[in-house]
C-alpha cells in the first residue's frame, strides 16, 4: 500500500467534509478499500475511518419495512430474526457471501460499493488498460480470460461483473439507498458501464451512504436467494438469483414476482421481463423455464462466460420453483421435488 | 521520512504502545510490532482466514484491518485464549485430540474461528460447522478433524 | 466457558511405533508458539520485496530506479544490472556445471511473473511503495502461453521415458474391444498456507537462513554453491514449515536475491513472497495431455496399453510431469507402449506437486479403464480385479507387497459398491443425479539414507536429534515413538529436535521417502544407545549392575533392571551412578563402503544415494483404491463429492492417527484437483490470471464430506527398516479419476479435462 494518513472521524459531518478531498477515501469495514489498496488499484492519500461513528448501524424492522444503517455489519443484518422473517432473500444473500470473518467486518454501505473482481482491473501493473481504473485506456478483459466476466449490461468499454450478493436481493425488492443528500431507488443507484465504466454508482464525490430502506412486501417475505458457484462456500457467484413470489388464492397462479440476477451483469440486474411474462401465469416448470430465458435477453457472450447464458435462466427457474413449492407444498410432485 | 503514529492497542488484556505507519495492518502490527506472531499471514488479501483474530469478541481478518482502526477495541489473538492459569481452551484441546491440523500454519486462525463459531451458536450440525468454518482454508486437509474438534468443543461448552 | 482437563490418550501403547499418539509438537501449534521462518527476530532487519515481469518473454532494456531510491526508507534496489556474483549450483544428483554464472534477476525474461527487480527498505511497507516507483522497460519477444497455445507445437520426446514390451500396436489392432481417449490436466499449484520467504543473516562468511524447507541439508548445499561457500558455512533453520507439498525442497531465485542483498547491505534481510507472487516464484504441477488406447478381449482381459503423453515445461529446463508413471504398473498387460514429450512454454519451470507423475498418470489410465468397462458392459471393479497385476511387468520383478486387491475388495465392501446400479444416470437422490466411481493409485517406495543422533541426558530425558523436517506429516511424533520403543523409555521422556542443517543429515521430506528413512536411522541410533547404556551399566565401576553377573539388562518404562521383577534404577539414577552427564550416539544408514566424511556430506546434500522402487530384488510401491460418490445438480452442472471410502496399502503405519490425517489431506487435494483447481493463463501474455486464493480455488471445509480411510497394508521390511511404505504422496493419486468416473456414472457425460467445472456439464 502507498503511504496515507489516517483520520478517525468524530462525526458524520466531519467525515463528509474530509471525504470531499480528491484522494480521500472513507474506511468502514475495510474489506474492499484495503484489499484494493494492496493491489495498487486504490491509492488514497487520506483514509477517513468512519467505523467508530455512532448512530449509523441501527437495524429497524416494522410492518412497513426495514431500515438499515450504512455501518451495520453484514453478519448483524443476516442474523436478525426479523430480517430473516420479512426478507429471507436479503438475509440469505448476506449469509452466502464471503466468510463469517468478512461479514463481521464489512458494512452494508460498503458492501454495496464493493468493486468488481475482474482480474484485469485488479492487476494494474500488468494491465494498464482498464477503463474503470484509467478512463480511456481500454479494456484488457476483452479478448482475455472471461469466465467470470459479465454477459449483461456490458459495453465495448467494460465487461466487468458486479459480484455483490446483497444488492441483487435489494434490487429485487425495490430498496432505496439513503445518502446524506438524497434517497435513490437502488436500481438507479448502480450504473452500467456504457462509455463511463469508472462511474459505478450515482454517488457524488463526498456523498456518503447513510442507510437503506427496504419496503415490506409479500414477495419480499416469500423470497429466496439462490447462489450457484464452483466452490461450496467462500466464493463469488457464477450466477445467482433473488426471487420473491406471491401466489393467488388458488395456490398456482402467480400474483407477484420479483426477479434479480447476480454474478452475470455489470450491475445487480433486475429482470422485469421475466416478472411481466409470468404474472398471471400458473406455476408450471415448463412455463417458468421458458419465461426465465428472458432473464438473459440481450446477453453477450465473450467465450469463456458463454455458460452463464445457459446457467442464469436455470438458476432463476429453480429459485422460482423453490419458493413456489414452499408456498404450496401440493405443487411439489408437479415440480419434481425442486424444494 | 514516513510518518508514524503512536497507537495504544488492547491485546489479550494487555496494553501495547506501538509506533507504526498509518497503513500498517493489524496483522503486521501483531506480528512485527507487538511480538505476537501466532496470528499467521497466509494471503494478506482476505482470502484464507489464517490471520483471524477477535475484535470485541467478533472474529475478523486482521490482514484487512488497519492497526489504527483497532485502537480502542479489545483484540484477542491465539496467544490470549488459554485461561490465565495456563489451562488450554477446550477448542485447543479438541484440536490436539482430533488431530485437527498438520503443518499448523492455518491452525491459530482455525482455532480463533472455531471459538467464535461456537459462541455464535453455529454448531447445530456438521453441515453448519463446515459452512461457518469455510472462511479458514487448510491446505493440509484437516477439515474432517476440524469439524470433529469443533463439534466436541461445542458439546463441552453446552455441558 | 469451562476449561477441560487435558485428557489421557487412548492407550499406553500410543507411545510405541504403531500407536495413535497425538501430534507431539501439537501444543506449540495450537498456542501460536511454534515459530515459522519469517517470525524469527533479527536486529537491524531490512525488508526486500520483489518486482516480477509482466510479459511472457523479452529483454529487460532498462530499469528506472531513481524515484524508488529516493523514496522513504529505501536502502537498495537490485536489478539485472547488478552482478550478484553467484554461480550455478549442482542439480539434485550433485552434478555441477563449471563456473557458470547464475543471475536470479535475469535480463532475459522467460515467463510472466519472473522476478526482475528487488527493492530493499527499512520496512516492508516502504519497500512495497518504492517498488511501485520502479519503471521497467522491455523489448518483448513472442512467447508461448501454455500447452494448448497453437505456437507450442509437439515438443520434444524424452527417450528415457519411453517404455515398451510386447507389441502394443499390433495387439491393440487385434483386440476386439478398443477405446482411445485424450485426457488433460491443467496447471496446478501447491498453495501451502505459509507463503514462501526467508530471513538471511551473515556473520562474516557464516550464513544463517530461516526459510521453510523440506530439505535443510540439500538447500544449504545449493545456497553454499551459489555463494561459493563451504556447505558448513550455511545453516538452514526450519523447525516448522507451513506446508510444502513439494514446493519447498530447493532454494529459489528469491532466496538468492535476499541472501545477496543481505551480504551487500551487511544487514539481515527478510523477503516475504506475496501470495500472488507465490504462483510464479516456483513451479506447480505442469499441465499435461495424454492419449491412452486400451485393447481387450470381449471378456475384459487387457491385451494392450498404448500411452502417449506430453507435459509443459519451461523454456530453460526440461522437467517432465510423467503421465506414463502409473500406466505400466497398475494392471497386468503383455503388450505395452508409452512415450512422453515435454513442450516448452513460457512458464516458471514446473515442480513436484503431491504425487508427481503418478497423479496425472492415474487420471489417464483410471479413467480409461472405466471407459473400457463401459464399452465392455462390465463392472469397473470386476475389470480391475480381472486384470490384477501379479508382478511388475515393467521391471519383471515380483512385488514386495501389493495389497491392492484387498484395497479394492475391502474398499468396495465398506462403500457398498455391490448396490451400484450399473447404467449411467440410473441413481438419483431428490433432484440430484448420483454417481459412483473408482480410482486406483500408487506411489513408489523411494529409499534414502539418513543419520540420527540420540542423547541420553543426566536427568533421564532422551533427545532425538535430526536435521529432518516436519511439515505436518508427523516426523516429530513418529521419531519420539521410535526412540521410546527402541530405548524402552516413556514417550513423555523424549524430546525431538529437528529442522536444522547443522544437525545430522536426512532424506528430503518429499517423495514419501522421509519417514521410512529417518525412522530407520533413529531406530538404529536408539538401539545403539541402549546397547551402550547397558554395556556401561554392566561394566562401569559405579554401576550397581556391574557385579550382578547379568549378561544383559532390560530397559522398560524408563527403568533399567537385570530381570523384569528384579531391582531397577531409573535412567537419572543410572546416569548418576555412571557419573555421566550425557550419552550421545550417532548412527547412519549408509552402507559401510560410503562412510567417509565426503561420502556422508554428499549423501545428505544430494539425491545421489536415493534408490528407486525396483533397484533391489523387488518392485516396491504403496497402493490405494478410492471409491467416490458424487451428487450432480444437472441444471447447474455443479458436482459435490458426498461420500468417499479409500483403502490403502502403505505397509506398516507408524502412527495411524497421523497417517489417516495425511491420507485425508491427499484425498482433499485430489477433490480440489478434480473439481476446482486450474491455473488460468491469459493466452496473450502468459499471465496467471487467478494467482490468489480467492480465484485459484482450493477446497473449503464445506466442500469436503466425511472421508472414510482404511488400512489394508502389511509390514514390508524390504521397503523400510520398520516396515512402512510411503504415505503422503499416494493419498491424492487416483482421487480425480474416481470422481470423474463417478460424474460419468451420474450423468453419462465423460469429462476428460480437469477440473470438472459446471460449464462442462450444463
UniProtKB/TrEMBL annotation, chain A:
Pfam families: CO_deh_flav_C, FAD_binding_5. Keywords: FAD, Flavoprotein. InterPro entries: CO_DH_flav_C, CO_DH_flav_C_dom_sf, Diverse_Substr_Oxidored, FAD-bd_PCMH, FAD-bd_PCMH-like_sf, FAD-bd_PCMH_sub1, FAD-bd_PCMH_sub2, Mopterin_DH_FAD-bd. The keyword Flavoprotein applies. Residues 1-219 form the FAD-binding PCMH-type domain. SUPFAM superfamilies: CO dehydrogenase flavoprotein C-terminal domain-like (SSF55447), FAD-binding/transporter-associated domain-like (SSF56176). Transmembrane segments: none annotated. One of its GO terms (molecular function) is FAD binding. This is Xanthine dehydrogenase family protein subunit M.
TrEMBL record, chain B:
Keywords: 2Fe-2S, Iron, Iron-sulfur, Metal-binding, Oxidoreductase. Transmembrane segments: none annotated. Pfam families: Fer2, Fer2_2. Residues 5-81 form the 2Fe-2S ferredoxin-type domain. GO terms for molecular function: 2 iron, 2 sulfur cluster binding; metal ion binding; oxidoreductase activity, acting on the aldehyde or oxo group of donors. This is (2Fe-2S)-binding protein.
UniProtKB/TrEMBL annotation, chain C:
Keywords: Molybdenum, Oxidoreductase. GO terms for molecular function: iron ion binding; oxidoreductase activity. It holds the Pfam family Ald_Xan_dh_C. Transmembrane segments: none annotated. Residues 31-142 form the Aldehyde oxidase/xanthine dehydrogenase a/b hammerhead domain. PANTHER family: ALDEHYDE OXIDASE 1-RELATED, XANTHINE DEHYDROGENASE. This is Xanthine dehydrogenase family protein molybdopterin-binding subunit.
